[in-house]
Amino acid sequence: NEYLGSCHCQSVTWTAKLDVAEHVLCHCRTCQQLGGGPYSCNQIIPKEAISILTGSPKVYSYTGASGKPVQCFYCGNCTSHIYHHQAVMPDKIIIRTLLLNGGPEMPATGEIFGEGRLSWVEELQENLTNGTKKHP
Q: Which intervals hold domain CENP-V/GFA (predicted)?
């Protein structure tokens, strides 16, 4: 299926083809630092499965866990991360699935870099009700 995606400011839009509508959570420190959250929501898809419709993403390069370069494609205006391209996987990209239409409804079906998972992530739903800590 093809999904429409957009950055926060709508300057960059794209379509992405996903075989299955799902998220793989990444707990690596880079995703935490780039996104400011405990994990990112992603899926690895073929490089040709994304098509930029409007705008032109900027590129930031960094060294990934593999020791090889990773290119991060993002909106130069609002800084939403659209996808990453790792040199270690030349024919694939890692798309940010939460930016796709229907993203909030997609289930999380896997995770990577679990060793970086913040200790409180699994406990959130258990311990919080409407954003407030439950009292025994």
A: 3-114
Question: Contact, 97 vs 106, CB < 8 A?
Answer: yes
The token duo for 112 is 């990577």
| 136 domain-assigned | no
Pairing of the two strands 132-133 and 128-129: antiparallel
Q: 45-79 burial by CB neighbour count: b if 16+ within 10 A, else e?
A: beeebbeeeebebeeeeeebeeeeebbbbbbeeee
Q: What are phi and psi of 30, to 5 degrees?
A: -60, -45
Number of domains in the chain: 1
- 135 inside domain: no
Count the alpha carbons within 13 Å of 38 in the hemisphere toward its beta carbon: 11
